[in-house]
Request: fold
Amino acid sequence: MVIEVKYLFCSYFCAMQILDGKIVSQAVKDAIKIKTAALKNAGKKTPHLAAILIGNNGASETYVASKVKSCEEVGFKSSLIRLPDNLDEVALVTAIEQLNSDSDVDGILVQLPLPKHISEATIINLIHPDKDVDGFHPMSVGKMVQGLPTFIPATPYGILLMLQHYNIETKGKHAVVIGRSNIVGRPMSILLSRNAYPGNCTVTICHSHTKNLKELCLQADIIVAALGIPGFLKADMVKENAVVIDVGITRVPDDSKKSGFAIKGDVDFINVAPNCSYITPVPGGVGLMTIAALLMNTYNACEQKNIGPN
Ligand code: GUN
Reply:
């Protein structure tokens, strides 16, 4: 409902265009579905994603459920391995080693964040780089930095697919990325600076110690807000005709919702949108693209096997 009001408001009063994650992710999924059916018809293996979910974190449960459901939609196999919050690291290591050596599994993802007693770095390092569909393994990150073919982390990859779909010019633009996480901000900054399309931006990466954030944002042609603070990016921080990409997906209490919470982005959408050339809504924007990009990575992981030496 809220999103419909936002769309209505902006379609009447702004020159701005919504970057619609629903439309673009569906186009990506449709293409994957066709390619997956072709693999099956050719007698080749079906792409198979294995997801490990630890504990009962509500947001993680929702994300993993969407990932599994999307696998079904495009004709992939999926396995969901649920492990308790209090598991020891050895049990998780064993689960990953089993998936690494299972030739039917093409992609492995361990939903983050992990319980505090387990080292994320250790776990990410264990996933075989050929199955690292999250693109978090140091080998994948290194290749991405060097511009070599590899798995690209799903959220930045989804954003690139979105920019590409709407044919948004990025060459020579100043992109400001707010947030330096390994999952979104840092890879996004690297990808936007690559000599490629989308890319060739001059990139500024901002974080909690950045002093002149507002000034930097006001210089930006493209802003990627990925800091996890609802409504952080205000209208007076965005220059006319900027492209605004909202990565925020924070759950905030909302008694009017059946679930008891609403999903809020990092951008003050209603006030920022009228000044933009393009903007992503929340929900209905980047979140859906993240899943589509994960499916692309999983398909490619499988195809690497299909096209490898016989
Ligand atoms: N937690 C938040 N985003 C992600 C993601 O893209 N992959 C994984 N594995 N965990 C996440």
